[in-house]
Design goal:
With 312 residues, this protein is an alpha/beta fold. It has 9 helices and 13 strands. The strands form 3 sheets. The protein has a 5-stranded mixed β-sheet, with helices on both faces. Strands 11-10-9-12-13 form a 5-stranded mixed β-sheet, with helices on both faces. A 3-stranded antiparallel β-sheet has the order 5-6-7. The two termini are 18 Å apart. The structure holds zinc ion.
């Protein structure tokens, strides 16, 4: 195969994005619905249909998938967002279909690789990235290497405890970061405040964290309180990961990372006030810079780096 292009794919709980990648250049972008609730076969058909128009022009395929991924065996072990995906040998299935080497990794790991090599975390050896969306994912670069962990669970920031008596998370356990920072929980916090206080948010039938962020920037009191609290909770979690990983840079990805100071000021304040030895540490907490490109770039890069390993 002469082409130096790679198919990069980002499989999320809602959307699939695929494209041809050369270095950090992206072309021929394809978008599809994941149909995550339609079961494994349905989502697999969607993934195949996104890759099919691209694979002939590529030498390998890299895929970031939301879930617990065994990257060595190319297996999706479990995914809370993709219904019916349990111990699926995704790399092998797609290898047979497209006759190209296929590598898979966790979607947040892919975003982290993308931001590390091409984005805001470039040049740093110790990076922690987490994404805030429907769920809260996390990934770590430690001493210049992506951390996978013994079981593929490393970096799961969303499911770290910030209140051991807190409410139940979507995973069933109590007081996890995701239970406070996941999109539907931010919206729920706004709704409970709206029941007691006047807010411009009452004009919206459907609320999202982005709408709440806009209202907060315009000075709406309920929306400002929601973001101050959300930032405090996230910052509490960040103080834990600062203590554990001592990163030079903490990158926040996902839609509300674009919210600006209404989110970052309380996060920075909480993280600094709760971490041991803050005055002796040098770190920054910043928004991601590549948007949706990061996952595609990172997945492609992972395929390129891993393609020298024995084939599956
Ligand atoms: Zn959880």
């Amino acid at each position: 195969m002469k082409s130096d292009a790679i198919v990069g794919v980002d499989v999320g709980g809602t959307n699939i994005a695929a494209a041809l990648v050369r270095g950090r250049r992206i072309s021929r972008r394809i978008a599809a619905d994941t149909f995550a609730q339609g079961g494994f076969e349905r989502s697999l058909r969607q993934i195949k249909s996104a890759i099919a128009p691209l694979h002939r022009d590529a030498r390998s395929i890299g895929i970031g998938v939301a879930g617990i991924i065994d990257s060595h065996r190319g297996v999706v072990r479990y995914s809370p967002n993709l219904r019916g995906w349990s111990d699926v040998p995704l790399a092998k299935i797609l290898r047979a279909e497209f006759d190209r080497p296929v590598r898979i990794l966790n979607d947040t790991n892919a975003i982290c690789l993308g931001e590390w090599k091409f984005g805001v975390a470039r040049g740093h050896d110790n990076v922690f990235l987490f994404s805030i969306g429907t769920g809260v994912g996390g990934a770590a670069i430690c001493e210049g290497k992506l951390l996978f962990g013994a079981n593929g669970f490393a970096g799961e920031f969303g499911h770290t405890v910030i209140d051991h008596q807190g409410p139940k998370c979507v995973c069933g356990l109590r007081g996890h970061v995701e239970r406070y920072a996941g999109a539907k929980f931010i919206v729920a916090r706004a709704r409970s405040k709206m029941a007691r206080q006047k807010s411009v948010l009452a004009e919206y039938e459907v609320l999202t964290p982005e709408i709440i962020a806009r209202a907060a920037r315009r000075g709406d009191r309920v929306a400002r309180e929601v973001f101050a609290e959300t930032g405090y909770y996230i910052g509490t979690g960040v103080s834990n990961l600062l203590a554990l990983f001592d990163p030079e840079i903490v990158v926040i990805a996902g839609g509300i990372a674009r919210a600006g100071s209404i989110l970052f000021t309380p996060i920075r304040k909480a993280a600094r006030s709760m971490v041991m030895g803050a005055e002796h540490r040098r770190f920054k907490i910043v928004p991601a810079s590549l948007g949706d490109d990061a996952g595609i770039l990172g997945a492609a890069l992972f395929s390129k780096l891993a393609v020298s390993e024995p084939e599956l």
